[in-house]
Structure formats: C-alpha cells, structure tokens
Structures
1.
Amino acid sequence: MRGGSSERLVVKPKKRRENTRARLTRYITVMLAALLGGGGSALLFLVPLYADPALSALAADFDPVPAECVTERRDDRLGLDNCTWASCREGCTSDAYKCIQLHVKYRAAAAEAWRAAVLYVNIKGCGYPPIVNCENFTMNYGYVGARYPCYWSRADTTVVVPRWSRGEQVATVTRTLAIPLLVSGCAGIGLCALHCECRPRRRRRPPRRPPRLPSLGQDDAVYRLA
C-alpha cells in the first residue's frame, strides 16, 4: 500500500504539468491563429483602400516643386457614359452617374508656356471621408479662374493634383503593408514552431566498416611462430 501511494504522489504532478502545458499550447495556438487571420484580413482591407492609391501615386512621379494652376472649365455631367472620369468622387468601387470634371492649365515655371491638364483630388480621383471631401474640394477648386499651387505628373503631364507628399505616400505603403505582413509572418512562424517539425532532419551516417586486410598472394611469404 505504501508503494502504491508513493507512485500516485509521483504521477499526479506529472499529469498536472502535462495538462498545464497542453492548455497553454492551446491558448497560444488560438492567439497566433487569430493574429494570422487578422493580418491577412488587414491586407485584404488595406491594400485596395490605401496601399494601391499610394503605390499609384509613387508610380505617377509627381514633380515635388509646385506649379501654378488655374481652373479653366468645369463640366457637371450626368449619366454613366458621360462619367468615365471625375475630378473627385467619394467611393472608388461604385459607379458614378453624376460627376464633376475640372479642366485646368498649369505652368511649372514663370518662363514656361501653359499646359492643359485635368485636376484630380488624388491620383485615383476618388477616396473615402474624412481624407477625401468632394464638397470642400469643389468649393476650393471648382470655379473658373481659381488659382492655386498644384503638382503635375511626370509620367502623364495631363494630370495634376492639389496636394502631394512623397514621404506621406511612402509612410502609407509602409504602414499598410509592412505591419500586417510582419504580424502574419511572426504568427505563422510561431504556429510552425509549435506544431510542425521546422528543423530539417539530420541524415544518419552509415556505420563505418572495418578496413579490409590485404589478401596474401601466392608469392607472399608467410611466417609462423613455432
């Protein structure tokens, strides 16, 4: 009886430790899986809303020196066929049946000639509040004769925007891509370390064979001890 009771006392702490370890592993797995799913969902949400416009703005290669812009014409259009583009539209995924198109002229320096262009609130011409407010945009730039600084695209000289900051676009791309990718990558590595054999297995070397003794020929002398 004494031996059995001592064995029970030894086994119980082991079981408790194993149960605590399994429970802790389960909690960590749930947390890492939530981080992995959250990082993937954040990428799906942030890339089309923020990262894609910022990357398009960087690809447009706007001149960092502001030019002088003057609004020449404003067109208020109705109909899906007439609204193939808009200077400002709230919501980039819905079709526009009513749009405002602003035509401007600009010159990069006082000595240069005026160039014709179209004015966009940003490179996509659309966005979501509070970053994009089309009512304020139209009030400030939508009347004929309005003068303001603007930035023209060196990739397409017929496109100008009223605001531009390369550092801001780079920071937007970094926030919307680097942080979710880092969180998802760390969560995936943690799940792999918990449940997978991530380290490559070492190949077992075959056992070394003992060296063979040279065979004696017929002409070799054999000496025997008497």
Note: The chain has a mean pLDDT of 81.
2.
Amino acid sequence: MRHRTVADLMTPEAVTVQRGTPFKEIARLLDEYGITAVPVVEADGRPVGVVSEADLLHSRLYSPTTAEGLMSAPAIVARPEWTAVEAARVMERRRVKRLPVVDDAGRLIGVISRSDLLQLFLRRDRAIHEEILEDILTRTLGLSPAALTVEVSDGSVTLSGTVPTPEAIPVILRLCQGVDGVVTVIDRLTAPGRTEP
C-alpha cells in the first residue's frame, strides 16, 4: 500500500518571480497563468516568500512596488516525500493555500496547492477497490478474497463478509480508511463471537 506523495501531486513547472519583480508584472503573471500566488525565489532557486492575490490587494494600504515588499515571508515549504496528509496539515496549521516544494538543497522543484490535494478524492472507485482487495486484505492481511466483499461508490467503501477474529476488524477498518481517495468506510463485517457492528 503506497500513499501518493507531494511529488506525485505537485505542479512541477512553477511560475516564479524574484525579489525585484514589479507589482504589475506579478499581477499579469497571476492572470496569465490562472494562478492565485507565486513563489519568490533567489537567483539559486531557493524560495524566500510567496506573493498571493491577497498580498496584492492588501498592498494598496502601504504601496510596496516589488515582490520583496509584497511577499509573505519566510516561505512555508513542503518536501517531495511528504504524504498528502502531511502537506494538508501544514496548510491548515499555517493557514496557507499552497506550498512551494523544495529539494534537499532547498531549491524550488514545484508547488502543491489545496486543489492538487483534492485530486486524491477524485480517485476512481475501481482503483480504490483493487487496492483494498488486493493490497490490504489479500497481501497485507492474508485474508481470503472469497470470504469478503468490497463495494466502493464515490469513495465510500462498504466491507462485508466474515473475518477470522473480531480483533481483526479494527485493523481492517483503519487500513482501509488510510487508502488514498477513501471518504468513509462502512463496517458490515462479521466474525465468530462478534455482535453486530
């Protein structure tokens, strides 16, 4: 079972500006590329901040004219090996909508946004079904696929059938809830000695 990482979901060709990029050029780039923010990078590609649409709007109060005066700094960054959950937590905690993604040397290699993270929940039901049945139930837990039924509809997973022990059920549910694209898991499993779920 492999969770998709920031590297899998990010936009690798990031539009960037430098400290001296003028206000109007930043506004033009946001409009031209249909984006809501741009990383501000040094000559060596290291991000030092981000200029968002909100930064441009707030700038009217104090009239900065370049990216250096407009940007929110320091840049809050993500690493390519992070899971989508790690990136989402940082965005939530720091109240940002996107994160520049940096390599081991701190150089920009992409940008991940909240809309990129939403792609996880657009994952096809068939792919979710295969991962749960083949990777989790059969390979990881060694259960017989003939004894279990997995139904997936719009990311909602319903598990039914019989498992060997009641203690296996919370483990199965937890692993299935961790699959990329799963919105909810409905437990209809039975086991010897287990009362109804």
Note: Strands lie at 37-41, 47-52, 98-102, 108-113, 148-153, 156-162, 184-190.
3.
Amino acid sequence: SRSVAARNSALASQMLHLVHAGRLIRIFGQEDREQAAFDTASDGVRRAAFVLATRQGALPPLTEVLHALLFLATVIAAFLANVSFPLTAAFLILLYRLQPHMRALQMSWSQLQGLSGSLEEVSWLLDPAGKPAPPLGSLPFPGLGERIAFEGVSFTYASEEQRAAVLHAATFDIKAGRSTALIGRSGAGKTTIVNLLCR
C-alpha cells in the first residue's frame, strides 16, 4: 500500500509537470522523453496496484484452506483424546458458525492494510511536527536587505520511495538588488528551490 501511494504521488507529480511545462517540452522536442518518463511512472503504479490486489485476493482461498486444516486437526485431536462424537460435532458446528465472522474480520483487516499507505500520507500532511511554523504578523515584506543564502540544502519529497534527492547539498547566494536566474534541465530542482523560498 505504501508503494502504491508513493508511486501514485510520483505519477501525480509527473502529470503536474506535463501540465505546467507543456510548451517547453514541445519547444525543445522532448515529447518522447517525457512520454517515456510518464509511461514508467504509470507502469510503476499499475505494477504496485497489481501486487497489492494479488495479495489481497490470495487471502480468502488461503483462509479457506486454513479453516479446512483447522477442522481436520479438530477431528483428529478429538479422536485421539477420546472425545465423544456429539461433543465433537457440536464444537465443529460452532466453529463453522464462527467462520463467516472471522472471514469478515479478516477482509476488514485486509482492506485497512490496503489503505494504510494513503492514510499515512494524509497523517503526514496533517502532522505539524518537523514543519516550519507559519509566519506570524501582518507587516508587508519590505524587500531583501542583504542576501538569501542556501548552505548545503538537500531536499527529498517524503512520499517518493527510492528516489534520488531533488536537491543535494545546494549552496548559493541570492543577493539583494540583483536578478538571479535558476537554470537547469527539467527535474533539476528549480521549482523546489522557489517553493522552499516561499516556505
């Protein structure tokens, strides 16, 4: 489930990138490259969802096999312990009546496990721990006095698994009174730098 949520997030980022950078992609003739990146992200979501669905689908037949083994073990144990047939039959009937309730609990547990990745994403989003406090006050920003310094700044999106850092030890100055341009290939971290500047 975590893998599905992470790959869905990566696919959403890819789609958002295509929406915002569509003109640039066409201007520089990068349609094939972007199509390949989108196909890879989409295929990752499909594979992760297939694995999750396969594992969830394997639970009901596995449960049936385990219940059959439990019934068999009960009969064998009752025979070896010289338990009377009526008592064994009553126990098996009660066990059989309990089976649908156990299956419902198991399916509910399986569905909750299947949603755990999405629930963790939402709880991470709502959790204020480790995030900067919102700025206070109502005074307007008077302008940059001297500079903004990035010193060894690294950044990775929390929802993406096994992905390289978007920024790795970035160090530079944005000086007051000058125009500063961020130049780099698509995905180099330009938008991330602007988002970090805006907190």
Note: The chain has a mean pLDDT of 83.
4.
Amino acid sequence: MTWEQRKFTDITFLSGEKNKDNLPYESYSVTNENGFVPQNEQFENGGTMATADKRMYYIVSKNSFAYNPARINVGSIGYYDGPENVIVSSLYEVFKTSEDVDDRYLWHWFKSNNFKKLIEEYQEGGVRLYFYYDKLCMCSLPTPSIQEQIKIGCYFDNLDHLITLHQRELEKLQNIKKSMLEKMFV
C-alpha cells in the first residue's frame, strides 16, 4: 500500500480543556528527555503550580500529546498515557489523534529530523520563537496504513528498549572500571 501525506488538521484535534472547576489534578511539565514529569519532581517545592489557582490550566487525559510552543524546538513534547487526568500550564498545546493514525508511530515521527525541519520552517516570533498548534496544522505527515503504522511504532519502541538496556550495561561496566582504577592506584 502506498504512503500518503496527511495534514495534521485531518489527523489531530485540540483536546485540552480548561480546569474550570479547579479540580485537584496533579500538575505536570513536559521535558526534553522524559516527556511528562510531575511538577514536584521537576521543581523544588512543586514549582509555581503547587499553590496556584489551576482553573486556567489544561486537563490532559489519557492518550494525549502536549508541548510548550516556545520549547518544542528543543524537543519538549510529551505523550501522556497515564490512567488519571493531569494538568499542564495554559501555555501548552494539548491534542489527540484521530483513529487514522497510531500514537506510537506519530510519537517516533515527532522525534525525527523531518519534524525538526518543519518546526524551523513554521515557527514564528522575534527574540523567542513559537510553534503553535495552528502551525502544526499547516504541516503534513507521511502515513502508511494503520496496520503498518502500528508495526513501525512497535519496531521503534523495541529499539528504544534495546538502547536503554545497553546503556544500563554500559553504565555498569563504567562503574566497574572506575572501581578497579580506584583500587589499583591507591
């Protein structure tokens, strides 16, 4: 089956709703390295959101993407698949995908150089550059069938898992070397 270019307007939709009732959802941030991270792990004393009025913050539900338009250029995008709703700053863009695209496939595409080039092309601003959701909607994504997207997403998930295992093994070996050097050169 041939791949087709799909516009983000056709495969995604904004999903962040304001926390109008000020519900006590846990506050999250999105980081470059780890995606969604609880604010209390990210900042001392839980950051500014710990005691803030949270009515203006966006509720993020399971299977949502979120990013800060001023930090997407450095890779700050996250995919949330947790069981409980959480909230993020109202500065974030929060969206979900249609049934035509596999979230894992899209997640790996967001980590590609192709996506970075689109950000550079469409971001706007002066001193600080922004890439809002409306700019994302101007972009398109090469997509195969949904079955192939699932296989591609699983393939890259497996590669990530393998990389993590090898990194842990490397760290163990580096610690052994360090220990041996310390004992050898007393």
Note: DSSP finds six helices and 13 strands in the chain.
